[in-house]
């Protein structure tokens, strides 16, 4: 092979395909002064580029409507309207008349607009910033005669390996699973949302490759191994055959694991562990339901919003939740209220913040916009008629947030009552424990909530002060750090003392070694990616709680994450054998 790029394994599976390089960045525009007699020609060039960009948006809109649905397609209408805006057109023409080339004039006007929108007080205007950027990329690409990279053009069966810096929402909605075999990004980590989405879509993915978009030129043949994080460029036939064989073996192993779906998740010393599924998209509900999961431990509702121009209304949300609830029969379905912000943004995003992960996200955003939050709460109370729905609040740091949310929940119930709608009033309300504040002070929540669910992705990020999405810090993102283990142990202990339900729904739960540690720390409910349910069940059935406890307590007493991991690895290998522990 020519090149071997190594990133972070994000979604398992092997893809052999052709690199589709997607550069979605505002291009550099050279300074170019034009003579007076060229002004009419430049204005004509601007209009021609606008017209072609609008035609392109119509094509994309139609395709996205067919593949993803009308709501997802609506973003492209918004972008078309921006291109027709009188002020935008007049502003660009005025600058051309001051002897700037069309591309420079358009760039300056768009820059002004983006800054103005980002500062705007009204959220709807702030949400348009991402659209402006998309429009700018489209028009400048045409004016500068650069290659167009839209993934929407890929024909079915293209078997493309999409290589891009990061996957933005407007790109995500263009992804056609029949055309794309795998995803590779420069940015991101295992717990960033590109990775989570790729796992949901069942697409092999590698993130955190850092420089893949610079090192590749497109059209190369490549093997993407989502389990090891290896992207092999221009492999030999021999290497391709070897990977195809591995893919076959993985399929056989998956089939073997599938038979576990019907078996109980009980440890060798007879302790039952409840395994639930994390569902990110309503379409995933069926895979989750057949994986052997006993319900949903985390439904990430923000993926109903990401990639769209408008928020889903009450009815649309109700149908999405109902679909998941019904797929799981009478089993519990924990639905988390919108965890927007951070790296999960609707199209157009929100105003950029200096520290988005410490910013206006999740429960903070919902409580500050009760009109938006109440729509979701009403949809949840209505969906609860169809099964065992539980509502979970993300990123809480204080019990006040729970009390405010409960007040809004009561108001939502009152409104439904006034309307005469069918709904359930007594829906359990729980919190995610994903900040050190919530973990350390978890005892302050016990009288106000029905359950805790530990979100280890954020808990690790905030405890270790390591950005979960920063590929340069991936080695420092160590969930087995003793500080993290102690916070988890404390949370579970407090829940048990107060007879509260508790679970773990972060990525830790999906990884066998960490699942072993969690069970040792007292966790009895794990919520994992649907495809990991059998893998975790196999571990559960091979270990005893006694061995897990002894190992996890020793790990929590270690000085470093490396020591803690070594202890757990050694103990797990003793319990289930070296080969199985290496998974
Ligand atoms: C977590 O933080 O662990 C979690 C489950 O939530 P998310 O990954 O969606 O932030
Ligand atoms: Mg989280």
Could you explain the architecture of this structure?
With about 575 residues, the protein is α/β, with parallel strands linked by helices. About 45% of the residues lie in helices and about 15% in strands. It has helices at about 40-65, 70-85, 85-95, 100-120, 125, 130-145, 170, 195-200, 210-215, 235-260, 285-290, 315-325, 360-370, 370-385, 400-420, 435-440, 455-465, 480-495, 510-520, 535-540, 545-555, 560-575, 580; strands at about 5, 10, 15-20, 160-165, 180-185, 205, 220-225, 230-235, 275-280, 295-300, 330-335, 390-395, 430-435, 450-455, 500-505, 525-530. The strands form 2 sheets. Strands 1-8-7-3-4-5-6-2 form an 8-stranded mixed sheet. It has an 8-stranded parallel sheet with strand order 15-14-13-12-11-10-9-16. Strand 12, helix 15 (about 400-420) and strand 13 (about 430-435) form a beta-alpha-beta unit. The longest helix has 29 residues, at about 40-65. The radius of gyration is 25 Å and the shape is globular. The two termini are about 25 Å apart. Phosphoenolpyruvate (PEP) binds next to strand 10 and helix 17.
How are the SSEs placed, and which strands pair?
Elements: E1 3-6, E2 8-11, E3 14-22, H1 39-67, H2 70-83, H3 86-97, H4 102-119, H5 123-126, H6 129-143, E4 160-164, H7 169-172, E5 180-185, H8 193-201, E6 205-207, H9 212-215, E7 221-225, E8 230-233, H10 237-258, E9 274-279, H11 285-290, E10 296-300, H12 314-327, E11 332-336, H13 362-368, H14 370-383, E12 388-393, H15 399-419, E13 429-433, H16 436-440, E14 451-454, H17 456-464, H18 482-497, E15 501-504, H19 512-520, E16 525-528, H20 533-542, H21 545-556, H22 561-576, H23 578-581
Helix pairs in contact: 1-2, 1-3, 1-6, 2-6, 3-4, 4-6, 12-14, 14-15, 19-21, 19-22, 21-22
The protein binds phosphoenolpyruvate and magnesium ion.
